[in-house]
Amino acid sequence: MAERSTDFDAIVVGAGPAGSCAAIELARAGKSVLLIERGPFPGSKNMYGGVVYPRILDELIPQWWEEAPIQRWVTRRSTMIMTPTQALTIDFRSQNWAAPPYNGATAYRPDFDHWLANKATDAGAQLLCSTVVTGVLRDSAGNVTGVRTDRPDGDLTAKVVIACDGVNSFIAKEVGLYGKADASNYTLGVKETLALPKETIDERFGVRGREGVDIEVVGCTEGVNGGGFVYTNLDTVSLGVVLKLPKLAAQKKRPEEIIASFKKHPAIAPLIEGAELKEYSAHVIPEAGYKMFPKLVGPGLLVAGDAAALCLAAGIWLEGVNFAMASGMYAGRAAAQALTRGNTGPDGLKPYLTMLDTSFVLKDHQKLQEIPHLVLSDRVQNQYPGFIANIVERMFRVDNPTPKPGLRRILLEERKRAGIRWRDLLRDGRTGMKGFG
Amino acid sequence: MTAFRTDWGTISFDDRMATSEFRIHERAHIVVDGDACRGCSTQECVVACPARLFVPTSDGGVLFNYEQCFECGTCYLVCNTKGAISWNYPEGGHGIVFHQT
Q: I need a surface site. Which of A38, A49, A56, B17 has the fewest CB within 10 A?
């Protein structure tokens, strides 16, 4: 591509975790970079369940834990299998996660994303808020040469554009990087932020100080494939459900009704009794991960974060912000190198793919590629929770004068009762082992 | 047998939506073609929209209000009627604003 004069070396669309990390890399490499955000401040449009795994920030912001706006450090992780009347919880606690470099952390996205965007402006990036990118500018050969915004005289040019414009990424779609949109690749997350005094949260969840709890639940979504979550913030609890879109649309229960029944479950109600709703929120999640990835490099364009569907919904691992930060960082790095070499065409930007390929970003997704589908399958959602809970209930039930049946007999009887075929059980077990093993 | 009170959580949908901040722009960012919706028997948007912005009408159509929209994308993703929903983001700085501490 011939060298041309542009408003900026790079334009990053979206000041979420991906966009801010891209802008940090570019600005630190001495490139002029504009970071465009459609909300009034970074993070204002952004919502997630509530846990971030920030270790990738070691590369960008050493000792990030000393300044990041964290609510609580997750020291207790619970995975819960639920039926309307039962709950089996695997509860793990580690004090190793209560000290640097920590593991997971709860944070409010408007706080966290705003903080990260400030790091980009500190590095020299220019931040433009309250501005919607309405399309890309392209030359006659189809190369992306900038963006069109909703500001008067809003065309802005750059040698490279990085689309970090979120799950709906109209940029990636406009440039043709996505195939046909399929609703079954997406879930809807709805969340309530519930206020309780800090001492009450500490007491009910068994934590102290800045320690926090992460509870993931399967079997709590009224037959709509998905899951539930409960996370502790300092003086609020984030509680919500994630619902597979076509399944949600094909039945009659509304999202807030599914949350309401989750909140009434005997395993959940005691945790949040008396809490006041502070905020209701919703967001779509690119749940299918690997199976729905768009092309990540276009002519003069890179895609990162949710815009690239880099979100890992693998049951026991629910991660997105870390993939956004990492992919944004690599996109910024690859773009800066391409700018230095003077080649921002598809070849020049290709090292982005190598960086993703050789890091956890694509390695985790590749390894776990079958898991999102397995977790949201009808069997895992509607048959296994009852099957497992009934086995455990019978194990613990003292049914005198009947003698104890023995685990093998319980297993055989419950499998039959749940109507699960051995073939399916083995197949799902193999898929699980392949991903998690 | 209910040992824990669960009735406290019951709030009206309007009160629920009032907990979220919307900076409403005078121009609708999403436009729904009610005529197209009349031919749609499934009306997926009605149950799936987390803000309950799609309301079925007695003549088989759908009434839509853009004001309290989370801008999530659920409606256009689940919609099976081509051209029924034209979806855009609100003007810069407008629409949903999630809370900072």
A: B17
